[in-house]
Amino acid sequence: MINRCGFSKAVGLGTGAAAVSLTGVQGPQGAAAAPRYASPASAPAAAVAPGTHAAFPQVKQIRAGLLNVGYAELGPAHGPAVICLHGWPYDIHSYVDVAPMLAETGYRVIVPYLRGHGTTRFLSERTFRNAQQSAIALDIIALMDALKIEKAVLAGFDWGSRTADIVAALWPDRCQALVSVSGYLITNLEANLKPLSPTAEHTWWYQYYFATERGRLAMEDRTLRHDLTRLVWETVSPTWDFGDATFERTAAAFDNPDHAAVVIHNYRWRLGLADGERRYDALEKRLATRPVIEVPTITLDPEQDPFTAPGNGASYRDRFTGAYEHRTLKGIGHNLPQEAPAAFARAVIDVNRI
């Protein structure tokens, strides 16, 4: 485990899926241990349909690294840990149906708001509102340290996939196994300078909008931000029939005072239009080599997500050198955990078996 001193040193500071059934875990275990599974016939947890749960029972707060992190926690305190990571423009409610299924199965489920979202706050007004990939990954290491979680299954989509991929690649001793939607998403800044096909570039319209002053001002305007993020939901999840209440519940997380600054920096940094911080340079140099991921992994591709790469995972298969399985979910869009919670929960359980 990286303690407070170790964390400071690491950053250079010097000091169709709804019918799936789930298998139960028998007996309490330490957070660092791999779960022991019962047979499918004993103590199964019922899968739930998308939208079954409206909210988490409670959001907790804990100081971790540079942040006071807001997070939901479900399941037994001594169960094997799984950390579920959301993306943008989403929040912890992407896992509002996944988390109860995993908790019933015996997992200790942690779902944190990423920096700039929900109730997560920077501890200091002087801290740069940085959203480069290594900084966000270190947020999760700091959170694990604060919660005294030695090792966890990491599962995510969008920003969450990238963050989980980085922890699995750079700190495999902290990652029991990995579930990554859209596969290997570690950013290579040099490669990002090369143009994609016009169709692919069109899909990323908001990334280029955020590169402009107009885009930044739109993200700071509550009404424009609301309409922009809803449009993203509609275009990247074309088959998901979500209601107003579902969107509004998540949109409240974007009222975080640092949301606009964090989001704008994330996308500008990826395009090479904004600098990161020098304290993360060593980590970014390692990530630029596209390090392989050796921990057991299941990758999930949502068929209706416009960002899903062609080839059924072939474009990133060589980045995973350990036990591995790939699944494509038919008819599902970008927000896979919320659109197909049972399939996502099934992957979290199955990844410990491959």
Write the layout of secondary structure elements.
Layout: H1 4-10, E1 60-64, E2 67-74, E3 81-85, H2 98-104, E4 108-112, E5 121-122, H3 133-146, E6 152-156, H4 159-170, E7 175-181, H5 198-203, H6 205-209, H7 213-220, H8 222-236, H9 244-251, H10 259-270, H11 281-288, E8 297-302, E9 324-329, H12 336-339, H13 341-350
Parallel strand pairs: 3-4, 3-6, 6-7, 7-8, 8-9
Antiparallel strand pairs: 1-2, 2-4, 2-5
Helix pairs in contact: 2-13, 3-4, 7-10
Verbal overview:
By secondary structure, the protein is of the alpha/beta class. Helix content is 33%, strand content 14%. The chain has helices at 4-10, 98-104, 133-146, 159-170, 198-203, 205-209, 213-220, 222-236, 244-251, 259-270, 281-288, 336-339, 341-350, and strands at residues 60-64, 67-74, 81-85, 108-112, 121-122, 152-156, 175-181, 297-302, 324-329. Strands 1, 2, 3, 4, 5, 6, 7, 8 and 9 form a nine-stranded mixed β-sheet that branches. Strand 1 and strand 2 (67-74) form a beta hairpin. The two termini are 25 Å apart. Residues 1-44 have low confidence and may be disordered.
